[in-house]
Amino acid sequence: MRKQLVEELRRKGISDERLLAAIGALPRHFFLDKAFEEWAYKDKPFPIGNEQTISQPYTVAYQTSLLNIKKRDKVLEVGTGSGYQAALLAMLGARVYTIERQEMLYERAKALLSKLRLGNIRCYLRDGNKGLPEFAPFDKIIVTAGAEDVPQALLEQLAIGGIMVIPVGEFVQKMHRITRISEEEYDDQVLANFRFVPLLKGLNKMG
Ligand code: SAH
Fold first, then answer.
1. What's the pLDDT at 207?
2. pTM, full prediction
């Protein structure tokens, strides 16, 4: 089933072989609720609780391709959710720092990622709008929730030469690929439309 998913992504235009191999090796069904397990290798998003979703594999692959991950890259992810995207980044050799604002999702992803022993993934229960200033700068930043604007803190925490991939917009989001050219200058490429759950403010410790 994983092979079929890889073929589907290839047909939809994903061409990075190292990325396709990682998707082909990562068991997505571990990251889903039992109820959705049998559909884990469909190119579809699914609910993961607390009104959140695991992104569609095509979206994960698209965002990851734009990041052009190199081994040892220091990568910040905002929106841990199920942990699938973080796991994929780690499989590509990145050093991953991932932030989630919902305690229940944070606890669950942290436990699963440590059980899978992928290494090099650190989970934080924080408001991702603020990034992780104590670990900046990051070579790459990926935001997996729809932002109304690009958070200033994330722009500041991007290394010079670094790339941020972030969906921006209120109801439908346009994917932005932002490259930091110098201390002051950023190049902003506006790409395809997607639909993400919203990037919210503050923490949710309600469970
Ligand atoms: N990358 C995830 C998909 C995430 S869905 C995966 O692979 O499964 C988006 C996630 O962003 C949700 O879990 C949501 O709770 C989280 N989120 C929304 N606003 C946030 C914020 N300000 N800081 C951190 N996480 C946030």
1. 58
2. 0.97
